[in-house]
Amino acid sequence: MEYSENFVNRLLQSKRLVILTGAGTSAESGIATFRDPEGLWSKFDPLELASIDGFLANPKLVWEWYQYRVNIINNAKPNGGHLAITELQKIKDNLVIVTQNVDRLHQKAGSKNVIELHGDIITNRCFDCEKQYLGKTLLPNNELPKCNFCNGKIRPNVVWFGEQLPQKAISDSENHAKKSDVFLIAGTSSEVYPAAGLSYLAKQYGSFVIEINPNETNFSSSADYIIREKSSHAFQNILNILKD
Ligand code: APR
Question: What are phi and psi of 52, to 5 degrees?
Fold first, then answer.
């Protein structure tokens, strides 16, 4: 795909580039998205597995489901898109990465200053006293791990449906969106708020908003430029443009 001159110029001249990523940017690392035809929500019920009520109703099932996802993620490698974004960060000062993903593949690819809107699946905390636990805490007999401080149930640090996003993450992201001159959203269906609202906020504050997604999304009609490609391909092309 040839990119328009206007797009290329905007990219080259951008001084405050923000990249918002969703599950689609990890799809090429073998991690299932949520709303694609074979996505996680076509097989599992989010309210049963990604909500406080679901956890309280069946904590062991929820824990096993997250352990299943962690095992996939621990074996996943950053793909060309993650790696290109890391290189972009070396070329473009102030490049901010805001992610909805919990797989930490941006960090694994060497990206810095990644804002995690939906927490992460690698670290855990006690549901009751909030004591933090790093990494997996599954007991040998596959039992639900308990807090060694208050004996509460341990849960992943992922933000569940109905929960507030980390306050600093969302307020920093909103500030970056407002100040951005180019706002690039990649691999997201733009269906989940407040994350999806960042693209509209950026546009409202005059940013040139680009969508990278092989499929149309709720945001497509508001995008200033659309790249209907997979994220690894698009980010490698963008890196080549900026390197030249
Ligand atoms: N490159 C770019 N985009 C892709 C690729 C790819 N290789 N493969 C799929 N996509 C696109 C799909 O077209 C879809 O628009 O990625 C998007 C994935 O959408 P979702 O599965 O809804 O994922 P996301 O937008 O990140 O979901 C947001 O919802 O369930 C919650 O907390 C969860 O963070 C998640 C949030």
Answer: -65, -45
Which bin fits 227, alpha (ψ -120 to 50), beta or left (φ > 0)?
A: beta
Q: Give catalytic status of residue 118 as yes or no.
A: yes
Q: For 134-152, how does the pLDDT look when each residue is reduced to its tens digit (9 = 90+)?
A: 865 666 566 788 999 999 9
CA of 2 to the centre of ligand 1 (A): 24
Q: Which residues fall within 8 angstroms of residue 119, CB to CB, at 6 or more apart?
A: 102, 156, 157, 158, 159, 166
Collapsed DSSP state (helix, strand, coil) of residue 170: helix
Catalytic site residue from 106, 118, 176, 233: 118
Among 225, 70, 232, 195, residue whose Cα is nearest residue 145: 70
Residue closest by Cα to atom 30 of ligand 1: 34
Whether the pTM exceeds 0.70: the reply is yes
Residues 152-186 have pLDDT tens digits of: 999 999 999 999 999 999 999 999 999 999 999 99
**Ligand 1 centroid distance, CA of 34 (Å):** 6
Tell me the CA–centroid distance for residue 113 and ligand 1, in Å: 21
